[in-house]
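>> Question from a student workshop board

For tomorrow's exercise we were told to take the sequence and the ligand below, predict the bound structure, and bring the output to class. My setup keeps failing. Could a helper post the expected result so I can at least see what it should look like? The ligand is adenosine-5'-triphosphate.
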Amino acid sequence: MLSIRGLGKAYGDHQVLQQVDMDLRPGSIHGLVGANGAGKTTLLHCLYGLLTDYTGQIRETTGRPIREHTGVLPYEPYFYPRLTGREYLEFCLQARGRLLVDFSAWNSLLELPLDHYAEEYSAGMKKKLALLALLVQDFRYLVLDEPFNGLDMGANLLLKEILLRLRAQGRGILLTSHILGTLTETCDEITLLAGGTVQRHYHAAEFGALTTDLLDLHYQEKVAHLAQLLPSSGPGTKV
Ligand SMILES: Nc1ncnc2c1ncn2[C@@H]1O[C@H](COP(=O)(O)OP(=O)(O)OP(=O)(O)O)[C@@H](O)[C@H]1O
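>> Workshop helper replied:
Here is what the output should look like for this input. Compare the format with yours to find the bug.
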């Protein structure tokens, strides 16, 4: 299990995370939600070791090195210029000292033009390529930053199915998303980050409360304010 205890991270004077506790269990899908700027990506970067200047403790409870056993899907995957999709996949495997594999079976699902330059892919295709690089490797944990974002509807459904099957195989998956329905359909538990800390952990039976908690009083105040800015009987309203 990946265990996060008392995690704190600041950028200069800006304390983004404080006293965050969270677990990622093998064989489970854990969603991380929170408003823009709540610190979700920062938490994922601490977990994977892309950021190291944090306080608190992040460890794999059986002592496995986290990086070696964890695959990460960044929010905006980066691709080197002049590298085809296939070369990118080969690069990912070689960088981890893994044997090259045949990508065709997986790619028959994602249907990418692997011999074209990756930097020329559309945003959704880039996300699929970065996903493909994870799927052809055998990770115990997957950390996915907005994996559904940018994918077409078919790919979204397929990704949901892939995640459920990876979970059934015992993988632990941590993902962020702003699409509540997708999260509640796939996750076993969801953590809500607010004000830099965990506002609440929800188990599946409690997901109903999540919508209410997200659309809190603050949101109701904004809707009331919007009604003043855009009154229903505006200048263009026919009478
Ligand atoms: N490299 C950085 N330097 C300074 N501040 C940063 C840096 N990266 C993020 N931040 C700040 O940290 C806070 C949390 O950012 P983060 O990207 O973790 O949020 P998030 O929850 O992933 O947001 P979103 O839902 O918009 O993706 C924000 O206030 C952001 O401005």
